[in-house]
């Protein structure tokens, strides 16, 4: 038996930030998103097949956890809108490296080389302080006790190398992306749906310079617009930011797909999904551009699938006291 506070003291880091990114997901939707948020969140908890925690259980015994996570994320988003996007991306970068086990949160130590400075993450991943704040807030909760059987647990290791090899770079071709997702048990459909996350958030010039100067599958006036704040010389203005979604950069909608159809994707890898009209990814891009509902359905299903990559359950892993450190 654990007390409520000890459960949350023991709340796996993974859960803390998976909830953070799902409640971000909620906050980023333009409207009518509450049911969708809970649908996603509850399924996320459910997706751990061996856990005995039920959705009812969480809803009845511990409604505070939802509100606590939501309120910390909300206040973080009020301070900076982009943080929602950053939290969502954290989940992706965790799940693709050793599975969804919070390995991405570990700081480097003399004996552990973490993932934070791997190429896709260094000077790019953000939101770690918000995860820390959520963990602190959640640990302050008091309440009744109940038995906690199994749940998602935190890894004791990290992989700098796999963070470099398994998270696809923005220079990837469609074939590269398809292979990277297949390696994680994800389909082209999942790839297209999950890429829709680029409807929010920002990228650095270094991530899209080649695309706006050298690719031909880009609208000329859009390329010019982005070139204005991203010099062609490598090393100059590398960290200048541009929104991933030209039209509604802070709203979670399907405009990402409309951008691709008009060749206004910001990353080379984005535009690859709609490069050759005959590809199966292009057909999906079209259908998501026509229906927000279809995109949301596809996104939720693919997020759940991604969150299911190699969860640590039972006695594997541990429950970290501090999100950033192995116990
Ligand atoms: C398909 C393969 C993907 C590639 C190649 C890719 C690449 C990138 C790159 C290069 C950036 C900009 C980073 C920077 O310049 O600092 C970025 C940002 C972002 N990515 Fe992806 N990404 C992919 C898939 C995903 C997925 C699956 C998600 C989440 C479900 C996601 C969510 C985000 C978000 C929200 C941002 C903005 C983060 C912020 O503003 O802090 N991406 N991505
Ligand atoms: C990460 O970026 C910093 C600059 O902020 C750089 O000094 C460091 O070498 C980079 N680390 C790796 C592993 O590339
Ligand atoms: C992408 O695919 C090409 C051609 O198969 C290959 O040479 C390259 O190494 C791949 N790049 C990545 C990042 O996987
Ligand atoms: C564009 O391509 C040329 C030729 O491959 C290369 O020399 C140049 O560095 C590229 N420019 C940018 C901004 O990527
Ligand atoms: C994507 O478009 C570019 C430029 O039009 C082209 O050179 C490249 O081969 C295309 N990639 C694929 C996979 O078709
Ligand atoms: C590129 O985008 C501009 C601005 O939206 C538009 O006026 C133009 O027609 C587009 N160019 C092409 C070739 O579609």
TrEMBL record:
Species in which this protein is naturally found: Zingiber officinale
Protein family (similarity comment): Belongs to the peroxidase family. Classical plant (class III) peroxidase subfamily. Belongs to the peroxidase family. Ascorbate peroxidase subfamily.
Residues that, per the record, bind Ca(2+) 1: 94, 97, 99, 101, 103, 115
Cofactor binding: number and manner: Binds 1 heme b (iron(II)-protoporphyrin IX) group per subunit. Binds 2 calcium ions per subunit.
UniProt keywords, alphabetically: Calcium, Disulfide bond, Glycoprotein, Heme, Hydrogen peroxide, Iron, Metal-binding, Oxidoreductase, Peroxidase, Secreted
GO CC term, one of those recorded: extracellular region
Principal EC category: oxidoreductase
Catalytic residues (UniProt): 93
Reaction(s) this enzyme catalyzes, per UniProt: 2 a phenolic donor + H2O2 = 2 a phenolic radical donor + 2 H2O
Protein location: Secreted
Protein name (record): Peroxidase
GO biological process, one term: response to oxidative stress
Transition state stabilizer (site feature) positions: 89
Taxon lineage: Eukaryota, Viridiplantae, Streptophyta, Embryophyta, Tracheophyta
């Amino acid at each position: 038996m654990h007390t409520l506070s000890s459960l949350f003291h023991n709340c796996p880091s993974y859960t803390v930030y998976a909830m953070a990114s799902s409640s971000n997901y909620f906050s980023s939707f333009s409207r009518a998103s509450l049911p969708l948020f809970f649908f996603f969140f509850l399924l996320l908890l459910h997706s751990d097949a061996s856990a005995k925690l039920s959705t009812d259980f969480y809803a009845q015994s511990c409604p505070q956890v939802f509100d606590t996570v939501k309120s910390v994320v909300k206040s973080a988003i009020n301070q900076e809108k982009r943080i929602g996007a950053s939290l969502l991306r954290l989940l992706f970068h965790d799940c693709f490296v050793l599975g969804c086990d919070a390995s991405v949160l570990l700081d480097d130590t003399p004996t552990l080389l973490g993932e934070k400075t791997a190429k896709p993450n260094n000077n790019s991943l953000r939101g770690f302080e918000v995860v820390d704040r959520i963990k602190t807030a959640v640990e302050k909760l008091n309440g009744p006790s109940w038995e906690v059987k199994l749940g998602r647990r935190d890894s004791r290791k990290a992989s700098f190398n796999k963070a470099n090899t398994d998270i696809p770079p923005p220079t990837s071709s469609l074939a590269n992306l398809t292979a990277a997702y297949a390696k994680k048990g994800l389909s082209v459909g999942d790839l297209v749906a999950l890429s829709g996350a680029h409807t929010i958030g920002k990228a650095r010039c270094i991530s899209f310079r080649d695309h706006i100067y050298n690719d031909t599958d880009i609208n000329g006036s859009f390329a010019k617009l982005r070139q204005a704040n991203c010099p062609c010389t490598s090393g100059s203005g590398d960290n200048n930011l541009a929104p991933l979604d030209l039209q509604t950069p802070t709203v979670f909608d399907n405009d990402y797909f409309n951008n691709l159809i008009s060749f206004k994707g910001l990353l080379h890898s984005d535009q690859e999904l709609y490069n050759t009209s005959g590809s199966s990814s292009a057909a999906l891009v079209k259908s998501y551009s026509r229906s927000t509902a279809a995109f949301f359905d596809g996104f939720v299903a693919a997020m759940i699938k991604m969150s299911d990559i190699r969860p640590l359950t039972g006695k594997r892993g541990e429950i970290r006291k501090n999100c950033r450190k192995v116990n």
